Amino acid sequence: MNDLAGKHIVLGLTGGIACYKAAELCRGLVKEGATVQVVMTEASEQFITPVTMQALSGRPVYTSQWDAREPNNMPHINLSRQSDAILIAPCSADFLAKLVHGRADELLSLMCLARPADKVPLLIAPAMNREMWAHPATQRNMKQLSDDGATILGVGSGFQACGETGDGRMLEPHELLEDLVAFLHPKSLAGRKVVVTAGPTFEAMDPIRGITNHSSGKMGFAIARAAREAGADVVLVAGPVHLPTPRGVRRIDVKSAREMLAATEKETVRADVFVATAAVADWRPATHSDQKIKKDGSGAAPTLAFVENPDILATVARTERAKSGALFCVGFAAESHDLVKHATAKRERKGIPLLVGNIGPLTFGQDDNQMLLVDAQGVQELPRASKIECARRLVAEIAQRLPR
Ligand code: C5P
């Protein structure tokens, strides 16, 4: 993917053991198509060398405000003016305090102070020991920095290099990348709440067995990620899948169709958009045994009876909120043939404004997809693309259709 194509990022390193992760982060930024200018404080050079960062970024690293390579000898001006964002990762407790006070006695802090704040956003990935993180001074400094317009990306939790366990670890490189990509994305869903169902459901017949559908959940997870990138408050109601939760998305894990319906009904009460991508089991076993159903040795198999599951999408689409247009419902249809005909009929049957059709075998478990958009105006075929690109396109199409 090239999620950062055309972007120029200044990556600032300050003194902390998390500098080792900055190497991978730099590589990830370059892989996503960004050009990266690394700026390092003197303290960061105790942990990682400019040689490493130069090799990974493909550009000489700046470490001093007196760097004579700049014709006007003003790297603090020149470097920030060309960038789409300055990301400080890791940002030490000391450097946070410096930024709060607008100190400028070395290149990185000088550059942050001299940046045009309305054009060049400042993102901070703090990294420190848990006691330093919890200290009121650090918390106070972060609030001040955030009030001053910086974006604090948060911290991870877990084992720390000092041997202690707690909050304050720098986020992992892939998490920082996801946050940066989201940050730079246009905010077409700002202020909106989006609910997405994803994955299969599992309908138990006893504590050991049940019936389910094939569904990787990839498309729904991609839509949740794309909606978050677009600035929405996103809730992902997920059936049993093994996928990481997209950053910044609230995930509710469910098993059965009825659990999925209950969570969805609760969350859509205040939502603006509902996207149903889940492959909900059409039926569930009519009875559920609390104990494992055992073979009795006679060779006779048990007879299974089924009852129909609720249609989550149709149920939500029938609510007053959806019918009034305050909740925009989107459905998916996986077909094996006659896609246009079946998808058009399904949109009407479900009573929804937008339906996405795709050919099931060409999308199940894949990383890419081809979507057909069906609305009251007609049918629009979109080009085949990765699921995240399809999801971003779908989110843009939804945003255009929402009431202002
Ligand atoms: O009727 P069919 O299962 O083909 O419809 C597919 C669409 O309806 C998808 O958007 C799916 O998430 C949704 N659906 C649902 N609840 C069901 C069955 C399907 O929300 N019980």
Describe this structure in words.
This protein is of the alpha/beta class. It folds into 2 domains: 8-184, Rossmann fold; 193-401, CoaB-like (Rossmann fold, 3-Layer(aba) Sandwich), CATH 3.40.50. The protein contains 14 helices and 21 strands. An 8-stranded mixed sheet has the order 12-11-8-13-16-17-19-20, with helices on both faces. A 5-stranded parallel sheet has the order 2-1-3-4-5, sandwiched between helices. The longest helix has 15 residues, at 387-401. The chain is elongated and about 80 Å long. The two termini are 32 Å apart. The model has no long low-confidence stretch (mean pLDDT 96). The protein binds cytidine-5'-monophosphate (C5P). Cytidine-5'-monophosphate binds at residues 197, 257, 276-278, 280, 309, 311-313, 331-333.
Give the oligomeric state.
Answer: single chain
**Gross geometry:** elongated
Tell me the major beta sheet: 8 strands, mixed
Helix content: 25-40%
Task: Identify the CATH architecture of the largest domain.
Answer: 3-Layer(aba) Sandwich
Beginning-to-end CA distance, first to last residue: 32 Å
Rg of Cα set: 25 Å
CATH topology of the largest domain: Rossmann fold
**Distinct bound molecules:** cytidine-5'-monophosphate
- Give the domain tally: 2
Give the gist of this structure.
The chain has 404 residues and is α/β, with parallel strands linked by helices.
List the helices and strands and how they pair.
Elements (H helix, E strand, L loop, with lengths): L7 E6 L5 H13 L3 E6 L9 H8 L17 H7 L3 E7 L1 H8 L6 H8 L7 E5 L3 H5 L1 H12 L3 E2 L3 E4 L5 E5 L3 H12 L8 E6 L3 E3 L5 E3 L5 H12 L3 E6 L11 E4 L3 H12 L4 E4 L6 E3 L20 E3 L3 H6 L2 H4 L4 E8 L3 H12 L3 E6 L8 E2 L2 E4 L2 E4 L3 E2 H15 L3
Parallel strand pairs: 1-2, 1-3, 3-4, 4-5, 8-11, 8-13, 11-12, 13-16, 16-17
Antiparallel strand pairs: 6-7, 9-10, 14-15, 17-19, 18-21, 19-20
Helix pairs in contact: 1-2, 1-8, 3-5, 4-7, 8-9, 9-14
The protein binds cytidine-5'-monophosphate.
Cytidine-5'-monophosphate binds next to helix 11 and strand 16.
